[in-house]
Amino acid sequence: MYKKNPRIMQGKIPVKWTAPEALENRIFTTKSDVWSFGVVLWELFTYGHSPYPDLHLGQSYDAIVTYLKEGNRMAQPDSCSDEFYELMLKCWFLDPDERPTPIDIVATLTPLDGPLHDDNGLNMPEDECKSKPIEENAIHLS
């Protein structure tokens, strides 16, 4: 957990983009960020459609977490290749430890879409992309 500057969650949470464990425990990690990345990737392939169209924002966090724990995931967008959808599904593994790390995502995307870096400073040093244990990467919001 990020212990230096714990933040208290106030206001609304972007429920449809938030990983189930973050909805339940208010603990946010690089692995919950990976879940959110999968949702954003889905949005890109649907040209901006709202995620989880069968969920209603008025539902409780518990109802949404139950929905996700039952294995419900968004369908493959029509414009999405099998390879990209497979990445999305990996981002949405229920167990955060089974989700890819950011460096795993970069390694997956690089052969799918060409290099993800260039000489203009867009490359990220590998050591900054490596995932740390969840307790070291978490922000606990209570």
UniProtKB/TrEMBL annotation:
<dbReference type="GO" id="GO:0005886">
    <property type="term" value="C:plasma membrane"/>
</dbReference>
<dbReference type="GO" id="GO:0005524">
    <property type="term" value="F:ATP binding"/>
</dbReference>
<protein>
    <submittedName>
        <fullName>Proto-oncogene tyrosine-protein kinase receptor Ret</fullName>
    </submittedName>
</protein>
<dbReference type="InterPro" id="IPR020635">
    <property type="entry name" value="Tyr_kinase_cat_dom"/>
</dbReference>
<keyword id="KW-0808">Transferase</keyword>
<feature type="compositionally biased region" description="Basic and acidic residues">
    <location>
        <begin position="127"/>
        <end position="142"/>
    </location>
</feature>
<feature type="domain" description="Protein kinase">
    <location>
        <begin position="1"/>
        <end position="113"/>
    </location>
</feature>
<dbReference type="InterPro" id="IPR001245">
    <property type="entry name" value="Ser-Thr/Tyr_kinase_cat_dom"/>
</dbReference>
<dbReference type="InterPro" id="IPR011009">
    <property type="entry name" value="Kinase-like_dom_sf"/>
</dbReference>
<dbReference type="Pfam" id="PF07714">
    <property type="entry name" value="PK_Tyr_Ser-Thr"/>
</dbReference>
<dbReference type="GO" id="GO:0004714">
    <property type="term" value="F:transmembrane receptor protein tyrosine kinase activity"/>
</dbReference>
<feature type="region of interest" description="Disordered">
    <location>
        <begin position="118"/>
        <end position="142"/>
    </location>
</feature>
<dbReference type="InterPro" id="IPR050122">
    <property type="entry name" value="RTK"/>
</dbReference>
<keyword id="KW-0675">Receptor</keyword>
<dbReference type="InterPro" id="IPR000719">
    <property type="entry name" value="Prot_kinase_dom"/>
</dbReference>
<keyword id="KW-0418">Kinase</keyword>
<dbReference type="GO" id="GO:0007169">
    <property type="term" value="P:cell surface receptor protein tyrosine kinase signaling pathway"/>
</dbReference>
<dbReference type="GO" id="GO:0043235">
    <property type="term" value="C:receptor complex"/>
</dbReference>
